[in-house]
């Protein structure tokens, strides 16, 4: 169970790092400052999410666990697609752009979320 928490924490941290870094870089848009600030803040927020998942995953509801798994799947998939682009496997660098990364990672996250839907145990009520 500890390995699952660590893996989900790393995946959720990757997702958070990517989102925060991109938002900061696009908001600041000053060449050296934006990249540094985006990477540092992304890393800080990513580490925070990693710690949060690591410490609270066991007490989380089945719905939250399913959501965390989908967010982690997004992060791992985005990392894998970017790695394929980096090594230029089969010439994929020319077709992999940020839109492709987000689309593929989102599709995998939705599929993971849907696949875990029936396994979440008893339904939660809003009462």
Structural class: mainly alpha
Overall pLDDT, averaged?
90
Please tell me what the overall shape is: globular
Q: Which consecutive residue ranges, at least 5 long each, have pLDDT under 50?
A: none
- The helical percent reads over 70%
The Cα radius of gyration reads: 16 Å
Number of strands: 0
Number of alpha- plus pi-helical segments? 4
* Intertermini distance: 30 Å
Strand content: under 5%
Order of helices and strands: HHHH
Describe it.
This protein is mainly alpha-helical and 127 residues long. It is 78% helix and 0% strand. The chain has four helices and no strands. It has helices at residues 2-28, 31-56, 62-87, 98-117. Helix 1 runs antiparallel to helix 2 (31-56) and helix 3 (62-87) packs antiparallel against helix 4 (98-117). The longest helix has 27 residues, at 2-28. It is globular, with a radius of gyration of 16 Å.
What distinguishing features does this structure have?
127 residues, mainly alpha, 78% helix, globular
What's the structural blueprint in terms of helices and strands?
Layout: H1 2-28, H2 31-56, H3 62-87, H4 98-117
Summarize the structure.
The chain is built from four helices and no strands.
